[in-house]
Design a protein that fits this description.
The chain has 72 residues and is α+β, with helices and mostly antiparallel strands. It has one helix at 47-58; strands spanning 11-18, 28-35, 40-44. The longest helix has 12 residues, at 47-58. The two termini are 24 Å apart.
Length: 72
C-alpha cells in the first residue's frame, strides 16, 4: 500500500491582479501553482486552467465532470 505522502498532493496557489497601463482597461488576473512534492511551478491566467492542472496532477475530476462509463 502507498504511504499517505504518495497518495496526497500539496499545492500552494497564488493569485494576483496586474494593472494595465492603458486607461479604462480592466486589470488582468494571473496565478501560479507550486507543487511542493514535485518541486514544480505552473502559471495560469484562468480558473479553468488552474482546475485542469489540479485535475491532471491529482486525478480528481472537477465538479460536474462526466465520469467514465462503468463508474457510479
Amino acid at each position: 500500500m502507498k504511504s499517505l505522502d504518495e497518495r496526497s498532493h500539496t499545492f500552494v496557489i497564488r493569485i494576483w491582479q496586474e494593472r494595465r497601463d492603458v486607461s479604462d482597461a480592466l486589470p488582468t488576473w494571473r496565478g501560479r501553482v507550486d507543487d511542493i512534492r514535485a518541486g514544480s511551478r505552473t502559471y495560469f491566467t484562468t480558473l479553468e486552467q488552474l482546475m485542469e492542472y489540479l485535475s491532471e496532477q491529482s486525478g480528481m475530476q472537477p465538479a460536474g465532470a462526466a465520469l467514465p462509463l462503468g463508474h457510479p
